[in-house]
Backbone:
């Protein structure tokens, strides 16, 4: 499973891959997030968040501006589907930070209809406190589901050197 490693050999895998604060800050400055629907108290990016026990998938996101870095692997499609549903039915802005699995059905069914897709330059170093194997495994994409995007407008695809934007340069 992508971005999931065993915390110790043979033990339960960890999905607690936290977005680097500077990447979140950059997106937050642009989109003004109010909700992180997949989080723990330790890695929540917004004051309002949902944990696994609350099940962010089962919650209502209406009226929020959502930053979504979902559990990767087989769980990711359900979260992206929820993002699409919330955008279409409740007018919720959802910005997803996900792996660009462009060969999958869920990318073609959902992400292909996003307002915007940004392909990130470089590998994002997600943080996993206490896990020594926090090497980036996959590329990342930002996928924006924007209820205010004009209907029928083609998805805007860009190549995004976010580290330059964040003032890090490379
Ligand atoms: C990839 S991490 C993202 C963490 C953090 N929100 C961030 O972006 O830095 C995914 C998070 O989703 C949480 N999670 C898993 N299933 C969940 C669920 N059903 N509802 C809410 N959170 C969930 C995990 O505990 C984990 O903290």
Residues:
């Amino acid at each position: 499973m992508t971005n999931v490693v065993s915390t110790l050999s043979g033990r339960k895998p960890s999905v607690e891959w936290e977005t680097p604060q500077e990447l979140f800050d950059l997106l937050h400055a642009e989109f003004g997030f109010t909700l992180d629907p997949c989080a723990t108290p330790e890695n929540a990016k917004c004051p309002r968040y949902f944990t696994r026990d609350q099940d962010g998938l089962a919650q209502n996101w209406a009226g929020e501006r959502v930053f979504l870095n979902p559990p990767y692997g087989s769980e990711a499609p359900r979260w992206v589907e929820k993002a699409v549903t919330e955008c279409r039915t409740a007018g919720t802005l959802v910005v997803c930070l996900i792996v660009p699995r462009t060969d999958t059905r869920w990318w073609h069914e959902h992400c292909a209809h996003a307002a915007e897709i940004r392909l990130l330059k470089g590998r994002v170093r997600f943080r996993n406190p206490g896990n020594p194997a926090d090497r980036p495994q996959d590329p990342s994409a930002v996928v924006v589901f924007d209820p205010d995007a004009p209907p029928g407008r083609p998805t805007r695809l860009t190549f995004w050197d976010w580290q330059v934007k964040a003032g890090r340069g490379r």
Remarks:
- The beta strands are 5-6, 13-14, 35-36, 48-49, 65-68, 93-98, 116-120, 141-145, 156-160.
- Residues 4-165 form a domain with the Rossmann fold fold (CATH 3.40.50).
- Helices lie at 21-31, 76-90, 105-109, 162-165.
- The pocket of S-adenosylmethionine is lined by residues 15-19, 36, 38-40, 43, 45, 50-52, 55-57, 69, 71 (CB under 6 Å).
